[in-house]
Amino acid sequence: MTYREIRVIGDPILRTPCEWITDIDDKVKGLVEDLLENVDMDGRAGLAANQIGVGLRAFSWNIDGDIGYVLNPKLVEASMEEEYQDGDEGCLSVPGLWFPTKRAWYARVEGINLDGKKIIVEGEELMARCLQHECDHLEGMLYLDRLDRAMRRKAMKEVREKL
């Protein structure tokens, strides 16, 4: 296994939107292998490419023993009008801190696999949270950006104290 160091808040790559994958070459195949291997660890629900220092649109997930990946993901459905969840959320790039984050109950992502074929990844509850969280990463956002003003102020204070 190739262990990849997780980039933490303050690293500029986490705030930079990732590039679309135009060619599925050996570099992309290696990235997917690294994403799958590095998400398959206790306490990891998802891992975006920029969290391991690669500015390409790809992420992996590990939800209830289901491990997978998607290239060029696009969040196509995440409606909070009907149902939403408001539980604590954490992030490998903001280690050890959890804050209540409002997310859609259901989410659907469309992307491609290593064969260039369209895939759809969808789910409710934790899977929906993961899909939304990882798509945010690829846009250069952290879950902290989704917090309301008062909670974000508290969170940023805790981040400064911890890191």
UniProtKB/TrEMBL annotation:
It comes from Gleimia coleocanis DSM 15436. GO terms for biological process: translation. This is Peptide deformylase. One of its GO terms (molecular function) is metal ion binding. Keywords: Hydrolase, Iron, Metal-binding, Protein biosynthesis. Its EC number is 3.5.1.88. Fe cation binds at residues 91, 133, 137. Coiled coil: none annotated. The gene is def.
